[in-house]
Backbone:
């Protein structure tokens, strides 16, 4: 009895001490100056920066967004070659759209008015999953998804139901924690302390991998491979990837819908930029930020490669954290443990891509799918290693037939647009320009050869009117992300929390796919909202 009493007392003392320390920590936040050209400067005009700037401008803050490229968008962009327009990045966007259950993204577009400037359209199918002995097309709603899996693998029915329950449960848990990032002090401590009891699915699965999830739900290796197929969107192979991402993303797509943007993702980027200006903000393209000025531990503004200095009360970084810490802020201005942690964290992969305009009509030839994934094996670790070492012929590739999306922007009648993507690592690409270009051409042909297992017409060069190839070097050049990384940190069990949207410098925030709301076109916009929300909280604006 006495022992129990002292344990309870100890817990109470620890609880109160933690609450006190957190309250003190919170109260110690430094206030930004009131004198500045702008309330907030946003460095970078990718989805994270655009979203942050728009949410801030919507609430009346004076914002300046500086983008180094000649147009906004970062990854979410497009380019034109001859008759063809190519989507740079977006295959499929999760997160909701008009007329569907909407638990995140579309609401954020609505509150900023960006929804009025873009047209989202829903894709009927999720993906076609192709292995040497399996070829299954998965539909885009839970009802149809469950039915398709049960029809193909009736003996796995109980596991299919279990997987569905886990996906919904995890998403439900995560939604109840969606404001935790705003909580401080005792409130945050209390929310976290209750997680094992209130967010049971999240608590049970936070330390388990996607492979453990597959093994828990299914016995047949083929169904595991098909259900976990979108590991090729998520970065890490299933034995290393967090199960949380697979659970949340699958539920996000199947409950909220699978979306694309009329006019490509550039249309969404442009809509954000237009809205920022309508709200009195300023968007400047072609201006590279070279430094964040720091005085007495607080940011005071930025300097740019054009020789301009702009002052601001807050800074939002849409750059990768390496540029933010080592180039813009300077590691000497940050606590050593923050810098050390960043150095220890592992970034995710980059991509290799082949963008083709074909002079044939793929749909008329019977290829009516939009998104297929072809894999040479169901061993995701083998595939990951093959792709990352540049052995594209023996890896996996996404095959996106954009001209089947029904948007005439991609190709004129009778022609088609096909894009292939495979994971890639910056370091396998030669530094010597001639060797780099040679390898680019060879590897493009390898990847085309792999995709020709699904569309044999790709093997005939006469069918290819336009071909553009991107590597991690290209992605690094356009986004300035180190190593051309496009997913932020590697999503394994140790790193799925990524880094918070706030930083040790009280008026610098992060809005990019490196921060806590994860990555992808939809989640990165949520990161933008989170960075904006933290600033608004500091300003006392609801
Ligand atoms: C080929 C490809 C396919 C993809 N497919 C999908 C998909 O199907 N679905 C999905 O959801 N996601 C997909 N993604 C991922 C998604 O596009 C990204 O996660 C997201 O768009 C990243 O947004 P961001 O704002 O964090 O960064 P970025 O898009 O990298 O933007 C950063 C911006 O900051 C600018 N910048 C950097 N440094 C400076 C500086 N010093 N000064 C001024 N400007 C600076 C850059 O120029 C850039 O515009 C894909 C990505 C790629 C590349």
Residues:
């Amino acid at each position: 009895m006495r022992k129990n009493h002292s344990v309870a007392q100890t817990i109470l003392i620890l609880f109160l001490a933690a609450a006190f320390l957190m309250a003190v920590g919170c109260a110690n936040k430094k206030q930004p100056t009131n004198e500045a050209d702008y309330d907030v400067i946003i460095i970078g005009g990718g989805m994270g920066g655009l979203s942050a700037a728009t949410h801030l401008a919507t609430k009346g803050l004076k914002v300046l967004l500086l983008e180094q490229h000649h147009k906004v968008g970062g990854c979410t962009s497009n380019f034109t070659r001859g008759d063809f327009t190519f989507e740079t990045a977006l295959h499929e966007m999760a997160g909701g759209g008009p007329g569907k259950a909407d638990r995140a993204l579309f609401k954020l577009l609505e509150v900023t008015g960006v929804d009025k400037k873009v047209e989202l359209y829903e894709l009927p199918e999720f993906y076609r999953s192709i292995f040497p002995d399996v070829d299954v097309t998965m539909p885009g709603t839970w009802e149809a998804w469950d039915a398709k899996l049960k029809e193909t693998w009736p003996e796995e029915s109980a596991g299919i139901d279990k997987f569905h329950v886990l996906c919904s449960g995890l998403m439900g848990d995560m939604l109840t924690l969606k404001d935790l990032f705003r909580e401080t002090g005792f409130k945050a401590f209390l929310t976290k302390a209750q997680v094992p009891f209130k967010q049971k699915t999240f608590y049970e699965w936070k330390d388990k991998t996607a492979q453990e999830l597959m093994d828990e739900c299914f016995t047949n290796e083929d169904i595991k491979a098909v259900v976990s197929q979108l590991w090729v969107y998520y970065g890490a192979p299933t034995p290393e990837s967090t199960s949380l991402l697979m659970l949340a993303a699958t539920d996000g797509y199947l409950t909220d819908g699978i979306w694309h943007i009329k006019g490509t993702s550039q249309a969404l980027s442009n809509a954000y930029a237009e809205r920022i200006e309508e709200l009195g903000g300023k968007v400047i393209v072609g201006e590279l930020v070279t430094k964040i000025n720091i005085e007495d531990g607080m940011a005071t503004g930025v300097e740019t490669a054009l020789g301009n200095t702009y002052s601001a009360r807050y800074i939002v970084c849409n750059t990768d954290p390496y540029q933010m810490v080592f180039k813009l802020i300077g590691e000497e201005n940050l606590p050593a443990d923050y810098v050390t942690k960043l150095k220890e964290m592992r970034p995710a992969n980059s991509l290799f891509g082949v963008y083709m305009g074909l002079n044939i009509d793929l749909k008329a030839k019977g290829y009516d799918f939009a998104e297929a994934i072809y894999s040479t094996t169901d061993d995701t670790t083998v595939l990951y290693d093959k792709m990352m070492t540049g052995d594209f012929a023996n890896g996996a590739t996404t095959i996106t037939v954009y001209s089947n999306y029904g948007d005439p922007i991609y190709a004129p009648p009778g022609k088609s647009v096909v894009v292939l993507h495979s994971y890639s690592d910056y370091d396998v690409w030669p530094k010597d320009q001639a060797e780099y270009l040679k390898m680019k051409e060879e590897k493009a042909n390898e990847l085309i050869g792999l995709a020709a297992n699904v569309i044999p017409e790709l093997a005939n060069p006469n069918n290819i009117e336009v071909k553009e190839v991107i590597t991690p070097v290209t992605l690094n050049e356009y986004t300035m992300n180190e190593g051309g990384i496009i997913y932020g940190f590697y999503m394994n069990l140790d790193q799925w929390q990524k880094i918070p949207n706030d930083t040790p410098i009280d008026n610098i925030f992060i809005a990019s796919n490196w921060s806590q709301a994860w990555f992808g076109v939809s989640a990165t916009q949520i990161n933008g909202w989170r960075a904006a929300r933290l600033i608004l909280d500091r300003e006392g604006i609801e």
Observations:
- Confidence is low (pLDDT under 50) at residues 1-5, 7-27.
- The two ends are 48 Å apart (CA to CA).
